[in-house]
């Protein structure tokens, strides 16, 4: 196999033929956009008609060298390639089919099913998951989490989950948070700022808090930009932050950052009970509702650390601004609705 492509123009018929195991006669880049990574849609024509998919969605490492090194240091591309290579095909979760996934150094390439071509819907942040679809998604997550509670089950398909976490560390994140708090004081809600200040002072404690509880394999980043709707069923994208953590890390972030705000407010406790009942029925951990609710309120503090970079100049323009603004609004709503600052102060 030739070196991994760094941009869509390097997705040549020859390279794609090797990757797909079918002779590609021509390829056309239909669109090319930038967010955390590069993404593109390509149309393919084969020497033998029907030998492969007519179109694909492609994820590539960032073009900007500094951004690419940052993503590479965290290991997002490598982790997502590992997920699609080793885990995705064993799941009952709705995830895209991935005919090719590879990572090498700071580069990675994922050739994914073109979900848009079969009518799947993706939110730009202007709409969220409704209550009924959220309930089904939480049942799906419960079965996924129950399966991977045991270390042996994780080792069977994803032994790489044992590798140490990669990333900038809480001290570095705390420094960036301090900058954002100082530079954007007038733009931040009181609750958002209060959580940020607590994070700066107690950053290591926060990361321990978010990992407290029974262990399983989690997606780790279930905001509205990382899910899709196939009819009324929620599917799950972007597994680059998947890891071993606690169930409520996924459940809380999905409820606060993917579910429609008004639907969450009206159904939040019922949706959490739906998840807990499904987890128990699937043979997973028996988590009491009161414990789960307390954890949910505390997990909501992660919305600040997950979104504060939207205030950095680097992220204040480009394709992801609308989604970023929507995620900030969701974070503010969750922090207020769940009295997160009070929950944190009680836990400290």
Per DSSP E runs of 2 or more residues, the count of β-strands stands at 9
**Total domain units:** 2
Q: From the alpha-carbon coordinates, what is the Rg to the nearest angstrom?
A: 20 Å
**Could you give the distance between the termini?**
53 Å
CATH-defined fold name of the largest domain: Aminoglycoside 3'-phosphotransferase, Chain: A, domain 2
Strand order of the largest sheet: 1-2-3-5-4
Order of helices and strands: HEEEHHEEHHHHEEEEHHHHHH
CATH superfamily of the largest domain: Aminoglycoside phosphotransferase (APH), C-terminal lobe
Structural class: alpha+beta
What is the CATH architecture term of the largest domain?
Answer: Alpha-Beta Complex
Return the CATH class of the largest domain: Alpha Beta
Key terms for this structure?
two-stranded antiparallel sheet; about 45% helix; about 350 residues; single chain; Aminoglycoside 3'-phosphotransferase, Chain: A, domain 2; 2 domains; Phosphorylase Kinase, domain 1; alpha+beta
